[in-house]
Amino acid sequence: MALRDIFISLSENEALSTAAQNYGFKLGAKNIVAGTNLQEVLESVRKLNEQGMSCTINHLGKFVTDEATATQAKEEILALIEAIHSENLNAHISLKPSQLGLSIDIDFCYDNLREIVEYANEYDIFISFDMEDSSHLQLTFEFVEELQKSFSNIGTVIQAYLHRAQEDIESFKDSRLRIVKGAYKEPEEIAYQDKLEIDINFIELIEYHLAHGHFTSIATHDHNIINHVKYFVEEYNIPKDTFEFQMLYGYRKDLQQALVKEGYPLCVYVPYGEDWYSDFMRGLAERPQNLNILTKQVFNKKTNTVLAVAAGAFVLGRLTKRK
Ligand code: FDA
Fold first, then answer.
1. Nearest 5°: CA angle at 217, between 56 and 287?
2. Residue whose CA lies nearest to ligand 1 atom number 30
């Protein structure tokens, strides 16, 4: 059984999911998930705003395969928009089209996305479409292009590991964009596999959009890239209101605070939701090497050992069953 399949089956395991929901927060998930409901996430966002950080809020959802769950996700996001507005928070929304029904029906998904963007537009709240794996890329870009004909409060993500990223950034040069290295396992026909090649492309894309484009969100925890961007924006007098650094909630808090202290705009990607467990397991299934970084952020040493033993026992159990 491949590691990917193990994480997928862990994500679908009801007993583990219930246990994670009951105990996961105490064990450390609260370090990287800002709450399980709207009230909790709003409290976290308020605290981050007080520290001089803006936020992009993401409602976590399980892999959506039915219309009722996608509609529920849409309602939650609409409530979030209303709350950002009424509480005057310095925040916008990040969402994944698959959560709104991309795998169910294209028109159904588009209608959900349009309703969200239109509602947020009334309050001048920005919506960022996260980029998922390459099977969702073309449709996500088409949705963004179509919605941009009517609304200006929408942007998306460019993944530096993709060979096509340079062309895509040119097509979206008038949009607010988040630029990332890329989080999914993609084949070498379409994506760079080598870290150095990804880093070089990442820097080129960031420089291109900073110099030619609209607002740029540089989303990384990599201090080398961040230092390079600091040098570039100083050298070319790029105004501080045309870019921001973005980092995940709970990751590299030291670096987040240092950037704010130095006067750089910093936006925290804040995930929340009851279903955080299956979302994270799916993330690990896509890219098991994330486990190391993730556990560093989440658990202390003692908990790590307990979890490693429990996961080992579970995996061994499954492998033996298959024989
Ligand atoms: P990377 O993991 O390459 O690490 C480089 C170096 O930085 C490490 O060797 C280490 O020295 C240091 N470092 C990194 N993380 C550290 C940590 N936690 N503690 C200590 N040191 C650390 N992807 C995607 O495909 N679609 C999307 O929509 C998004 N959205 C998104 C939003 C935001 C706000 C972020 C931060 C990231 C994403 N991503 C994403 C994920 C992105 O593509 C990428 O997989 C991760 O950010 C990991 O790459 P990094 O650039 O952070 O550093």
1. 75
2. 130
Higher pLDDT: 212 or 13? It is 212
Neighbours of 241 (CB within 10 A): 8
* Residues of the chain by 3-state class (helix, strand, coil), percent to 5: 60, 15, 30
Q: Say if pTM beats, i.e. exceeds, 0.85.
A: yes
Instruction: Look over the chain and give the mean of its residue pLDDT values, rounded to a whole number.
Output: 86
* Predicted local confidence at residue 285, as pLDDT: 63
Instruction: Fold for 33-275, please state it.
Output: TIM Barrel (3.20.20)
pLDDT digits 0-9 by tens, 209-241: 999 878 999 999 999 999 999 999 999 999 999
Q: Which two tokens stand for residue 188?
A: 């070498």
Q: Rounded to whole angstroms, how far apart are CA atoms 75 and 24?
A: 26
**Integer Cα distance of 96 and 131 in angstroms:** 7
Q: Which of 137, 168, 220 to mutate to test ligand 1, by most ligand atoms within 8 A of the CB atom?
A: 220
Q: How far is CA 84 from CA 54, 80, 114, in A?
A: 12, 6, 19
Q: Is 166 helix (H, G, I), strand (E, B) or coil?
A: helix
User: Does 131 sit in the ligand 1 pocket, CB within 6 Å?
Assistant: yes
pLDDT tens for 262-272 read 999 999 999 99
Question: CB-based contacts of 182: which residues, under 8 Å, 6+ apart?
Answer: 159, 160, 161, 162, 191, 198
Show me where the domains of the chain are located: 1-28+284-323, 33-275
Query: What is the secondary structure of 251-297 as a DSSP string?
Result: SSHHHHHHHHHTT--EEEEEEE-TTHHHHHHHHHHH-TTHHHHHHHH
CB 157 within 8 A of CB 131: yes
- Ligand 1 centroid – CA 221 distance (Å): 5
Q: What pLDDT, on a 0 to 100 scale, did the predictor assign at position 115? A: 98
305 pLDDT higher than 50: no
